Amino acid sequence: MANIKKRVAEDVPGDFFVDSTCIDCDTCRQLAPAVFAEAADHAFVHHQPASSADRRHALQALVCCPTGSIGCLGDDRPQAVMDDFPLLVEEPVFYCGFTSPKSYGGSSYFIQHPDGNWLVDSPKFLPRLVERFEALGGIAFIFLTHSDDVADAQQYAARFGSRRIIHRAELHAQPDAEIVLDGHDPVRLAEDFLAIPTPGHTAGHCVLLFRQRFLFTGDHLAWDRHRHQLEAFHDYCWYSWPRQIESMAALTRFPFEWVLPGHGQRIHLPAGEMRRQMEDLVPRMRGAED
Questions:
Q1: Dihedral, CA atoms, 11, 34, 39, 27, nearest 10 degrees?
Q2: For labeling, which of 10, 90, 99, 113 is most exposed (least CB within 10 Å)?
């Protein structure tokens, strides 16, 4: 629970506040960008909610904060927004919310599919969210992009009898995973699902392409909301930046319109513009190598 005595100095006066336990994971800025902004190493309230919609979004951020660093002094009932999750991104893809401190607030996604639903990376294991997944038909598969963002995947797998998918180089994070990927070639997992190894951020990092439209990118690729361009995180590349550049260049061959990252901003662009953005990103990455 957020502590008003630890309120960060940048907060504007009003009901909503961020305290100094914030880990700057970006969850609140994705859910309520009209309310929350980014300081040097933490979020803060830059505008108090100006509408009922903004207030609801701020409450969504409050309940989803992985460290409980957002507080509200009003008489709002945060429980009222719990059933908003998972939030629809675009049919049949949903954002799970309830990010976990185990994955540093990494985003996870739910895909409703007639042949069995998928979870991409993992949120916190919460009874309320479990009930929502049950109502949507359960979880048949859990695709884990890499070791950083597994969070509570094991608990979800145990609850739903899900089959977890992870690359062998990341297997230390889920040693009893049911499906283990090998090598660096794309793997067709089902009719609509293609796993694409993208080593760089970690040795066995993979992305998941769904219906040649939705790309779930883990920590490989995101949108820079300030520069309005695709980005890769040079400062958070744990394995090999040159390998990540190679992986990004290879990814330009695949069509998609959504980038749905574990960390960073998601974005939807027309396929042609997305390809142009990808082609522009690779030389910028090579420049960062110099």
A1: 110
A2: 90
